[in-house]
Amino acid sequence: MSGIKFSGNRLRTCLLGEFERALELAGPVPRCIVDAGGYIGLVAILFAKRFPSARIICLEPSSDNFRVAARNCACFPNISVFHVALGGKRGTAVLRDRQTGEWGFTIAPVAAGEEYDELEMVGVISVRELMSEHNIESIDVLKLDVEGGEFEVLNDATDWLKVCKLLIVELHERIRPGVTAVYERATKGRIEVHADGEKRLSVLPVRGADY
């Protein structure tokens, strides 16, 4: 695919089934998919190819990654890419490099003694604000891979999780201690379909559904 910036392990894990269970749960015809922490657009493209009629919103805070994601996704008319971070409330934050690679940039606070580089100031938006700005009534899939920023997102999830059918989240306890407890509190009453290391799949209960 012309323009894609291949990053070996990340691309291979997408292609080798990292999201296969999520793709099954998202079907058959999701209307709105949000990819927060979109990196260079690989997962957005994966969903776009499986669900060409879905509206896909890809959010990426890094300017460099955003530019690559925008190029990679340009040939998919159902993907919109935005240079913004998902957080608990609207504002700005410092994007930091934790020395873990270009897919590991974070707006989360850095623990004392941890080495990092400050990259740039980025805009931040909450899920509810995103839904309001883009006239979204419900989210069929929210993929949340924001390197510790999920703490604030999930801590502000009392209303929007009620209209989020599938939550795909990577919990970075090593970056934000306590985030697992925040996730479990936020998703109480939902169905945990899959938990594999950092990745968790949480589904809004639907009567008669077989998970």
TrEMBL record:
- Start and end residues of each Methyltransferase FkbM domain: 35-175
Task: From the Swiss-Prot or TrEMBL record, give the protein name.
Answer: Methyltransferase FkbM domain-containing protein
Recorded hits in InterPro entries, A to Z, give: FkbM_Methyltransferase, FkbM_mtfrase, SAM-dependent_MTases_sf
Task: Write down the superkingdom of origin.
Answer: Bacteria
